[in-house]
Amino acid sequence: MKLLVAALESELVAFPAELEGFARLVTGPGKLQATYALTRALDADVYDEILVVGTAGAVDAATVGVHDVTAAIQHDVSDVDGIAGQHVSLPPIVTIAGREGATIATGDHFVDDAATVAAIRELGGSLVDMETYAYVWVAQQFGIPIRVLKAVSDNAQDDAITDWRAAVAACSVQLRQRVGELYDV
User: Fold this and answer.
1) How confident is the model over 107-129, as pLDDT tens digits?
2) What does the alpha-carbon distance between residue 9 and residue 22 come to, in Å, rounded to a whole number?
3) The dihedral sign for the CA sequence 59, 62, 65, 69
4) Which of 19, 55, 124, 130 could make an S-S bridge to 153, C-beta 3.0–4.6 Å?
5) Which alpha helices (DSSP H) does the chain contain, by range?
6) Which long-range contacts (CB under 8 A, 24 or more apart) does 113-116 make?
7) How does pLDDT run across 144-170, given as a tens digit for each residue?
8) Beta bridge partner(s), residue 152
9) How many angstroms separate the CA atoms of 3 and 92, rounded?
10) To the nearest 10°, the Cα dihedral for 78, 82, 86, 89?
11) What is the Cα–Cα distance from 97 to 26, expressed in whole angstroms?
């Protein structure tokens, strides 16, 4: 059995309530809720794989569509020396081996300004969200393979929250199509 994970129900609107071969988990937004909910789910049951689907902001306007995420950084942390992207006790980057993909910058606030986007670009992120780093880190603690698919919903600048609200359902349709192609469901 695989575990289908999303932060929000709205990211799963195009998915059936029951998807053959998958249990379903909605964690809530942000790193703390993602960590808590995924840890509880993995403590309660055994899964062959975790499949995360959701939306992401793009750092560059030309970035569109659905992306396989294979690395995650945290854009909203710094270490004791004030180095951005470095946590005091967690790795600066968590990676998913086995395929090429995008690097996502995770942080606990919705990114909608040019200054934050510029900082994320300097850290090496091409996408931005609020949960992926936590999902990948937790999966690694449990030794469970994880795949993260993110559909670009906005450009992470200006009025991005309005763009996200308008795009989330269409992103869910794109994600459902990709999951169908990859998992034959």
Assistant:
1) 987 777 778 888 888 889 889 99
2) 16
3) negative
4) 55
5) 31-44, 114-123, 132-142, 160-183
6) 113/157, 114/157, 116/75, 116/156
7) 999 999 999 977 666 655 566 778 999
8) 56
9) 26
10) -80
11) 25
